[in-house]
Amino acid sequence: MLMAIFWVTECIPLPVTSFLPILIFPMSGVMDTAKTCRCYMNDTIIMFLGSMMLAAAVEQSGLHKRLALWTIRAIGLSHYKLLFAISFITMFVSMWITNTAATTMMVPINSALLKVFEDQNSLKMYEPNKNGDMVATDFSSCYFCAITFSATIGGIGTLVGTATNLVFKGLFSRAFPLAPEYLSFPKFSAFSVPYMLLMELAMYFYLIIVYFGFLRPNSQAAKDSVITPESIEAAKKTVDKDWVNLGKVTFWEYMVIILFGGAMVLFFARSPQIFQGWGDKTISYFGIKNNKFIGDSVPAMLVCTLMLLLPSNLNIFKNFRAKSYGDLTKAPISSVLNWKIVNDTLPYSFMFLLGGGFALSEAAKEEYSDLNGRIGDVLQNLKTLPNSFIIFLIITFTIFITNFASNVVVCNVLAPIAMQLAKQVKVNPLWYNIAAGFSASYCFCLPVGTPGNLIVQGAADIPTSKMMKAGIGPTISTLILTWFAIYFWAPVIWPDLHEYPSWIGS
Q: What is the separation of C-alpha 372 from the centre of its chain, rounded to a whole number of angstroms?
């Protein structure tokens, strides 16, 4: 615990005390290797903090709800179209904000639409179980599970999508500070987005086959999934009403679009490795030898600072026309990012999970407990197995474990073991790190594995058995697609995976 607190207290002050010096770093000098590694871990944790604040601005403005309702109105309200719209908009939103927030956003929208269908006698949301308690029907389970599953899948689309991504990136950077920056924002998304879309499609087709009778026209599921035109029209009126209640796009939402979009552009253009990014040019201009000196935390904290400074409405300009003190605005003008709300809702506990994981990684090194070395001795017997099979074992074991424990904790424990195994079998550690890191996010069967599952189970009274029925298909398809992506697609993005690198050390 003390080591975790040390990491957090060492890392949190970086953007506050060092953000501007980073931008005017000629006065800062060039750091040595030890400071480089330490700063890079600071960058990972501050990147996580910045991503939470960026996501909070989207939630506070209500932009994510407008996007969800617009998508549903655009795609349609038959079962196939509605499930597609709900699933893919949740996935997209979850790429940029936390999985929990994306799930929480969609639950009331989902409930309202299903209630309309129930009022039109097109489906039942609840049914009694053996004990007489009202629980979710298969239709309700399908829709609500689609939300949390899509949020989980969408989280792997970008570095800021879920804390797990930043954990395995940070663990790799900590273990191998001399390695190139493989997990930059552009390369990460170049690998994960096609892979994410395939997993989402596989999940969607599994759900419509099982619950809507797709490809099974004579099945009971297909007959039950028919919606009358009256029900569709009633649901459309509900969505339209919510859309009208949102009103026109506000100045606040425009500011979030500009600032959030600017942050994404800065992330992708910092060091894209297909052309010289702004970070590369800055480092080159000032002659800094460490090419990791400017990390993703710099644009994250720059945009967060602007969000805290800039107003969320135009009422501030009324003060310029005021002729007397009484004409001035009476209340404080809220910024794009309301710090009071952020401070009350930000999950600071995740900082300790991240810090604890990095402390655990540090303590396992040879100069401390040498736990990595001991684990390596145990894993010697896997040397004879094919690389493809070892990757499959890592993925399978990680997905199984992450259904019973926190994704972040599982990643913190298993990613270092996977990298140590890679050293033993003479494989690039990045390969096994991304296998364990991505797999740690995939909890589809049990509620305890991720907060999103607990949210939908509590909101819709979904029995664990029904969540397992909905989740077993995505679990199997995710396992297969993850193995395919890691073994075949990853070497296309990172050609160095087929080589045992010199930066690995002893």
A: 28
